[in-house]
Design goal:
mainly beta, Immunoglobulin-like, Hypothetical Protein Tm1070, Chain: A, 6-stranded antiparallel beta sheet, disordered N terminus
């Protein structure tokens, strides 16, 4: 196994380094301390100054995106005799590897700490629940000092194809459900208007909880939700000032062909509209087709969607010669897989409304 660890044994003001190699993450243990983090920097060389003394953590965490940098800073305190160390790494209770480090044999009475910054990345690329176990042998065999469980998760991106343009007539709420009953989860909301970044904020939702975020006052056209893991569900809720409500589940997949579905069963449906967003880095020329209930092509037109912006309006805007009832679905096709869309339809008073994400 290819491993890489920078270890420093600190003897009062004397430091020496040894190089090893491997990946894993952190824990607090008896006779020392440790932390898992995204980076680190050199700290004080005065042994009485700081808890982590020679190495200071940056971005301490126990949840990481799979593949990102992970460091584990350890400090072995009150060192007064020769010792050696050993580490084990588990993923989902399966032992991945065991590593036995060098023996520190020149321990003297002036020694106070052995301080080690471990880079923990490669073996944690696969998403999962990890456990690292740290041992020390001072002559009577290896004994567990402590262990720590940490997680690496895949990054998940969800797409918000439309926010209402009129905050007086429409309210917009992001509803977030954390389906993990043991862990809290974090996510970020990023909003754009006419292609420019105008909003960004980070949120935490407790284990097995629901969080509702009022985004009405944010002047956003389209947005992105970045989350770690696939353990959360995101819904966008629209509320009209006439009392109508409609919500839909945000999608992770971007499409080059977005099929926009409408409710064609309810007799209440009086109008049909849609929003289609371009989440690509360049403007997209699109073909827009109106399709009838029997699959017949009713009409066809073209338009342009600017980067990180959207087209939005009633079906009559693109197809003035067709009634809402004639249109069963609308298909929008781009050159690249950059589209996400949502349909919205309702009665004449906007009391009964329906939303569907594009397929």
């Amino acid at each position: 196994m290819n491993k890489k660890i920078a270890a420093a044994a600190i003897i009062g003001l004397v430091a020496f380094f040894c190089s090893i190699s491997f990946v894993f993450a952190g824990f607090d243990y008896v006779g020392g301390s440790a932390v898992t983090c995204r980076s680190w920097k050199y700290g004080s060389t005065n042994k009485d100054d700081a808890k982590y003394w020679q190495f200071v953590p940056i971005g301490a965490a126990k949840r990481f995106e799979a593949g990102e940098k992970i460091f584990f800073l350890t400090v072995r305190e009150n060192v007064d005799k020769s010792f050696r160390y050993q580490m084990e790494l588990y993923r989902d209770d399966e032992l991945l590897w065991t590593y036995t480090g060098k023996e520190f044999t020149e321990v003297k009475g002036s020694w106070r700490y052995v301080s080690c910054p471990w880079e923990l990345t490669g073996d944690c690329v696969v998403p999962g629940n990890y456990k690292a176990v740290f041992y020390v042998d001072e002559g009577a065999g290896f004994k567990v000092l402590d262990s720590e469980v940490f997680r690496t998760l895949p990054k998940a991106t969800y797409y918000l194809p439309h926010f209402p343009a009129d905050p007086v007539r429409w309210k917009a709420y992001l509803e977030v459900d954390n389906r993990n009953e043991f862990y809290e989860n974090q996510f970020s909301v990023i909003g754009y208007k006419s292609g420019s970044l105008v909003f960004q904020d980070d949120y935490t939702v407790s284990a097995d909880a629901t969080l509702v975020i009022d985004l009405t006052s944010e002047i956003i056209n389209v947005g992105i939700v970045d989350a770690l893991g696939a353990e959360m569900s995101f819904r966008l809720l629209y509320i009209s000032n006439t009392g109508g409500e409609a919500e839909f589940l945000l999608q992770e997949k971007l499409l080059n062909e977005a099929t926009i579905l409408f409710n064609s069963t309810s007799p209440s449906v009086f109008w049909k509209g849609f929003a289609v967003a371009n989440f690509g880095d360049i403007d997209e020329d699109v073909i827009i087709e109106a399709i009838g209930a029997n699959g017949e092509l009713l009409d066809i037109t073209t338009d342009v969607i600017e980067s990180f912006s959207r087209l939005v309006g009633l079906s009559s805007h693109w197809f003035p010669g067709l009634t809402a009832k004639e249109i069963a679905k609308i298909r929008v096709t781009a050159n690249n897989s950059v589209l996400q869309a949502v349909s919205i339809s309702g009665d004449s008073k906007n009391v009964k409304m329906f939303c569907f994400p594009a397929q």
